[in-house]
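During the reporting period the student researcher (J.K.) took over the structure-prediction task from the postdoctoral fellow and processed the backlog of single-chain submissions. One of the processed entries is reproduced below for the supervisory committee.
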Amino acid sequence: MHTEAGLLDGRRAATHRATARDLADEYRAVTVDPGRLFIVDGPVCTSAGMTGALDPALAFVEADHGPEPARSVARFPVTYLQRPGNRSQVSMYVKDPAPDHRVLREVVRYVTAHPDGDLTTPALAARAGLSERHLSRLFLDQLGRSPARFVRAARTGAAARLLQGTTLAPASLARRCGFGSTGTLRQAFRDHCAISPSVYRLTLRRSAGLWRKASEGVRA
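J.K. obtained the following structure tokens:
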């Protein structure tokens, strides 16, 4: 409706990545960014789907009242992470579809199962029996990213799972996930979800506590 009324003409807009191309093709006057969760351009805010609308709402609360009220509000709908608009629409917990190419499927399985291994592009290409160029092309064609970017995302996802299910210290966690240092882990985590690993773990614990209290209240 906003687009048909011309309210987005000359503005940047976010939408779900599945429909971004159609929106851009149909409304040439709109600059569609398929990688953003939400965009505020002047008086207009657009977001990537239904749950994506929670993120700008929380951002508005923070802008008007500060970060602590925003975090408090986020706890009620069990939205345990307040995400900035420039965060990727792809969740670290949502797996990519299995590649059609059999060899690439095996490479992906190996990366996922061995985040602490030698996952450089030359090493993966040698394991797959392919040239580095051919492997990189397969990754880009079927997964939409380079081998290095896929490996970094896989390692970050492994770190997220360990943060949730273990009490490993940051240095041990970084080694288990193939990061060379805690600084590298921290940067990868910030790039993906805009917060540090320690804040992520703390937020999960708080959410788990709220869930337990809610469950106890229901049982009572």
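The committee noted the following: The chain has two domains: 12-75, 102-203.
J.K. will present the remaining backlog at the next meeting.
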